[in-house]
């Protein structure tokens, strides 16, 4: 009987103890954490909560309690990611990012012709700072532009030392009498080299030929160098048409020469003409000629008014066309019109309109 009693006592104690449940280690969400590695907790135990590295606590409370039914009390604690400052733009480059919170990434690139110095990316760290400072984009460097033999280089900006940067341009010039063959402009490229260098070559032209009814400023029977010039003029009364001079070109040929144009005779008898703003009789035109491109006016008959009107014609290299309507006119329309106007009388009749006689 004694042994049975003791066994029952033990069973009774066990039954009473099972009414109080322990709490398992809480399953924390939203970047919340707790210290230690303990797996089970007795009722009444309080646990302090904190945010994982890189996150900041907001709201609260920051602790939970194990209740007698084996469950933890609720908490409104939230952990939000820390914020890094907004990155600044980089000169001669671009940056790409989606956010500036903890673990966000910035990627940097440089424009064509520029080289990056420093890391090409940065990460927002747990302390709210970027892992690396922004890189720099420095221009690609070239040496000095190659100078062609018998030529020179003129840069678009002042150059110091023996290096030039991407985008610098230069102009090539050849020393006389050399002519430049190739692109006269060069540029420091993104590859760190200059564009193709042109050549300076000697160019000569044969002795120039004279023009009909003209003369030239040089009669040397020699070869002329590139860009040398020869001037032309015409014997009187011929008129020079075209450029006054011809130039020795890069092709080894002379530029287009001018020509001498002939004057024109005025094939009219016993009539007046309008020449250089004056009306003169044709017999008073001495000598009977007008120069190339000069204009005269003759008079054609207005049969309705019985008088003449002006029609212009121009001398073109010895040819002066007389208008088909031309007749020898001795009175002019504007005079007759003026005289008729003076003779005009106006009368007012009943009915309120005017009659001109």
TrEMBL record:
<feature type="domain" description="Sushi">
    <location>
        <begin position="82"/>
        <end position="139"/>
    </location>
</feature>
<feature type="domain" description="Sushi">
    <location>
        <begin position="21"/>
        <end position="81"/>
    </location>
</feature>
<feature type="disulfide bond">
    <location>
        <begin position="110"/>
        <end position="137"/>
    </location>
</feature>
<comment type="function">
    <text>Binds to various kinds of negatively charged substances such as heparin, phospholipids, and dextran sulfate. May prevent activation of the intrinsic blood coagulation cascade by binding to phospholipids on the surface of damaged cells.</text>
</comment>
<dbReference type="InterPro" id="IPR050350">
    <property type="entry name" value="Compl-Cell_Adhes-Reg"/>
</dbReference>
<feature type="signal peptide">
    <location>
        <begin position="1"/>
        <end position="18"/>
    </location>
</feature>
<keyword id="KW-0677">Repeat</keyword>
<feature type="disulfide bond">
    <location>
        <begin position="205"/>
        <end position="248"/>
    </location>
</feature>
<dbReference type="Pfam" id="PF00084">
    <property type="entry name" value="Sushi"/>
</dbReference>
<dbReference type="Pfam" id="PF09014">
    <property type="entry name" value="Sushi_2"/>
</dbReference>
<feature type="disulfide bond">
    <location>
        <begin position="23"/>
        <end position="66"/>
    </location>
</feature>
<protein>
    <recommendedName>
        <fullName>Beta-2-glycoprotein 1</fullName>
    </recommendedName>
</protein>
<dbReference type="InterPro" id="IPR015104">
    <property type="entry name" value="Sushi_2"/>
</dbReference>
<dbReference type="GO" id="GO:0008201">
    <property type="term" value="F:heparin binding"/>
</dbReference>
<keyword id="KW-0325">Glycoprotein</keyword>
<keyword id="KW-1015">Disulfide bond</keyword>
<feature type="domain" description="Sushi">
    <location>
        <begin position="140"/>
        <end position="202"/>
    </location>
</feature>
<keyword id="KW-0768">Sushi</keyword>
<keyword id="KW-0964">Secreted</keyword>
<keyword id="KW-0732">Signal</keyword>
<dbReference type="GO" id="GO:0005576">
    <property type="term" value="C:extracellular region"/>
</dbReference>
<dbReference type="InterPro" id="IPR000436">
    <property type="entry name" value="Sushi_SCR_CCP_dom"/>
</dbReference>
<dbReference type="InterPro" id="IPR035976">
    <property type="entry name" value="Sushi/SCR/CCP_sf"/>
</dbReference>
<keyword id="KW-0358">Heparin-binding</keyword>
<feature type="domain" description="Sushi">
    <location>
        <begin position="203"/>
        <end position="262"/>
    </location>
</feature>
């Amino acid at each position: 009987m004694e042994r049975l009693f003791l066994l029952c006592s033990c069973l009774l104690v066990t039954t009473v103890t099972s009414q109080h449940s322990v709490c398992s280690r809480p399953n924390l969400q939203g970047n919340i954490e707790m210290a230690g590695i303990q797996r089970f907790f007795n009722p009444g135990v309080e646990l302090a909560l904190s945010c994982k590295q890189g996150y900041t606590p907001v709201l609260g409370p920051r602790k939970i309690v194990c209740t007698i039914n084996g469950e933890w009390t609720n908490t409104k604690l939230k952990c939000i990611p820390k914020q890094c400052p907004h990155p600044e733009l980089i000169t001669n480059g671009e940056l790409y990012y989606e956010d500036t919170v903890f673990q966000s990434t910035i990627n940097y690139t440089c424009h064509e012709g520029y080289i990056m110095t420093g890391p090409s990316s940065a990460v927002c760290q747990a302390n709210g700072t970027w892992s690396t400072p922004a890189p720099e984009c420095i221009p690609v460097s070239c040496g000095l532009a190659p100078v062609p033999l018998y030529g020179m280089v003129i840069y678009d900006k002042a150059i110091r030392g023996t290096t030039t940067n991407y985008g610098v341009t230069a102009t090539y010039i050849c020393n006389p009498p050399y002519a430049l063959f190739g692109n006269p402009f060069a540029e420091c490229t993104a590859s760190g080299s200059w564009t193709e260098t042109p050549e300076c070559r000697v160019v000569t032209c044969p002795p120039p030929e004279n023009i009909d009814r003209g003369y030239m400023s040089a009669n040397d029977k020699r070869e002329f160098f590139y860009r040398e010039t020869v001037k032309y003029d015409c014997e009187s009364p011929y008129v020079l048409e075209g450029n006054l001079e011809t130039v020795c070109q890069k092709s080894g040929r002379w530029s287009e020469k001018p020509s001498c144009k002939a004057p024109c005779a005025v094939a009219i008898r016993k009539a007046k003409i309008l020449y250089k703003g004056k009306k003169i009789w044709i017999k008073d035109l001495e000598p009977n000629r007008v120069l190339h491109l000069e204009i005269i006016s003759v008079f054609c008959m207005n049969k309705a008014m019985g008088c003449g009107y002006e029609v212009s014609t121009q001398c073109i290299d010895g040819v002066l066309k007389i208008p088909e309507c031309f007749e020898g006119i001795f009175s002019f329309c504007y005079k007759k019109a003026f005289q008729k106007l003076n003779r005009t009388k106006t009368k007012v009749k009943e009915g309120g309109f005017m009659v001109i006689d």
